[in-house]
């Protein structure tokens, strides 16, 4: 018994004389002002709502938002604070998208199934991609009416008004909960970009109606405005890829140069259907593929057709009344392995909401005898 008491005393003494435990608060800092914010991305969905290949008329577990949705819910569950964005090219690119527009038509008051899915999943904001113009300006304008969240693009301008054709950016007012459970208000600026090449690719639909401005110029114009309006952090929904080829006015893949713009805190990339961080970008200078940084800025690109969910985890800290990004890490989660075996369950509630449109498309293809 005595021995035990002695041992306890010895341990207590040892504990007291040992250095402070690692979770101790650094002097002069307040841990309650540290917030984890998770940013989620889907990109280049191209109307892939279902894990189905309409060309081969069979299940394909490597694609489909009804699979990605399960990852979205999982990623949200893990995080105290999260935001979900889509990075464009979501309406066109498969027979479902075609059938909806060219055969059945998007009737007045009806919400496009892709937007029905976005509404159901409560995206915080979306940007539109170059392919959104393939069906013409009036189609995209009426389709966007069905969205329950803001949509942004900062580099397409109306010729008539000389102003941005869409809302260039939006300020999301949110509450974030810190590590001690206290809620804080935060203003998140969200801005969108797309390649200027739309004027070539969709000349018939766009000429005489809109013009484009270079991506980086538009960022330089609007980011300071967003800061002046009190944006704590700024997220770029950049429907553009990643390349360090010398920048010019019509750079199609502008992410590398967007990372150099002060004020932008995180970039969601797309358009190239690639994966970042990933081996495609092994030779990109100033790039950390472990943390997903380009020129020190967090970037993510989540493949295409819903194959992956992009995730950027930001650690924010309040410094002199302003939220600053202290640390970040980017990654992507896949819905299937390399052999196409599904890694996630289907989001049945989402499937129920879009099943009708999917089945109509399948029936239509059958009738054509394709
Ligand atoms: Zn694109």
UniProtKB/TrEMBL annotation:
Gene3D superfamilies: 3.60.21.10. It catalyses: a ribonucleoside 3'-phosphate + H2O = a ribonucleoside + phosphate; a nucleoside 2',3'-cyclic phosphate + H2O = a nucleoside 3'-phosphate + H(+). Belongs to the 5'-nucleotidase family. It comes from Bacillus xiapuensis. Residues 37-273 form the Calcineurin-like phosphoesterase domain. Residues 1-24 form the signal peptide. Its main location: other. Its cofactor is a divalent metal cation. This is Metallophosphoesterase. The keyword Hydrolase applies. Keywords: Hydrolase, Multifunctional enzyme, Nucleotide-binding, Signal. It is found in: Cell envelope. InterPro entries: 5'-Nucleotdase_CS, 5_nucleotidase/apyrase, Calcineurin-like_PHP, CpdB_N, Metallo-depent_PP-like. Pfam families: Metallophos. It comes from the Bacteria. CDD domains: MPP_CpdB_N.
